[in-house]
Amino acid sequence: MTADPQQKPSGPAAAATAFAALHRAAEPLLLPNAWDHASGRALAGQGFRAVGTTSLGVAAAAGLPDGAAATREETLRLAVALGSEPFLLSVDAEGGFSDDPDEVAELARELHAAGAVGINLEDGLGPPARHAAKITAVKRAAPDLFVNARTDTHWLGDGDGTVERLGAYQQAGADGVFVPGLTDLRRIETLVRHLEVPLNVLYSPGGPPVSHLADLGVSRISLGSLLYRRALGAALEAAAGVRAGRTPTGPIPSYDEVAGLAGPCRAPGRAGSRTGL
After folding, report:
1. In percent, how much of the chain has pLDDT > 70?
2. Can you tell me the mean pLDDT for 71-84?
3. pLDDT tens across 1-38, in order?
4. pTM
5. What's the CA dihedral at 187, 188, 192, 196 to 10 degrees?
6. What is the pLDDT of residue 146?
7. Can you tell me the distance from the alpha carbon of 109 to that of 205, in angstroms, rounded to the nearest whole number?
8. Measured at the alpha carbon of residue 81, what is the angle toward residues 276 and 263, in degrees to the nearest 5?
9. Which member of 33, 105, 142, 165 lies 3.0 to 4.6 Å from 151 by CB, making a disulfide possible if both were Cys?
């Protein structure tokens, strides 16, 4: 589990270009989503060139509600922690934590300054014109930042209005579009043909496999909160098993391996220690 992330190109513009190129490669960008510094470094250590964040994981870890514009500071703090790491970082920023396009643009500037190369902005089924205004403001404030414009038509609704919303977000300057909850293969194929920008979908254990999504031309496949929820589930399973007298199964990183994810000089006096719990 030793972190061995691949080097990202030096300079914000080169890193942004590299991230955008991953959306037009021969294979889809499979984007795992981290919720803290350790999970981000661990995922990069598995060879993922780009890592995203999960708003649910960040919110739950802080004891705050997801999707309620309550985690601006926590999101920015994680971006600062991960933005200097040698992998490409995209940040899930809910709806930008504001309905004011100028305030969302200021957040984008801060994320870009922290080292992020991408931002997810969700519409929450709010007015599409308002979301389009946010996208335009972000692209003006941080032109290099890859804006992945999310519509919740399939996540919170029945899919109505998806094409119209995505068209508006494309026109506003979105670099890619995201439709979580969309698993129907025919609808995915139709969207890919209709769109001029890369399509991002959310992986679902009960939905199409990565290979089928790749065949349809999907450019990016996000894992969302899946890894955080799986980690929490594994922790509960292990605790219950120990209580019942069973030995936990599955990979268990050592103390030193987890401590090593802090990186050099992040935890003075603790690196290599075997005395911690």
Report:
1. 92
2. 97
3. 544 446 777 788 899 999 999 999 999 999 999 999 99
4. 0.92
5. 80
6. 98
7. 35
8. 45
9. 165
Among candidate residues 146, 100, 106, the one with its CA nearest the CA of residue 126:
100
DSSP state of 269: T
Nearest residue to 90 (alpha-carbon basis) of 117, 111, 115: 117
Provide the angle, in degrees to the nearest 10, between the axes of the packed helices 55-62 and 72-83.
110
* Torsion angle, alpha carbons of 30, 3, 75, 180, to 10: 10
Tokens of 4: 């061995």
Q: Does an H or E element contain 30, and which?
A: strand 29-31
DSSP 184-242: -HHHHHHHHHH-SS-EEEE--TTS--HHHHHHHT--EEE-TTHHHHHHHHHHHHHHHHH
- Helix 72-83 × helix 101-114 angle, to 10°: 30
CA distance 141 to 144: 9
* pLDDT confidence bin for 263, thresholds 50/70/90: low
Structure tokens at 186: 């025919």
State residue 264's pLDDT score: 52
**Please, what is the average pLDDT of the chain?**
93
71, 62 Cβ separation under 8 angstroms: yes
The DSSP code for 113 is H
Nearest to 163 by CA among 113, 205, 128: 128
29: DSSP letter: E
Q: Are 221 and 210 in contact (CB under 8 A)?
A: yes
Mean pLDDT of 120-145: 98
Q: Is 208 left (phi over 0), alpha (psi -120 to 50) or beta?
A: beta
**Alpha carbons 244 and 97: distance in angstroms, whole number:** 43
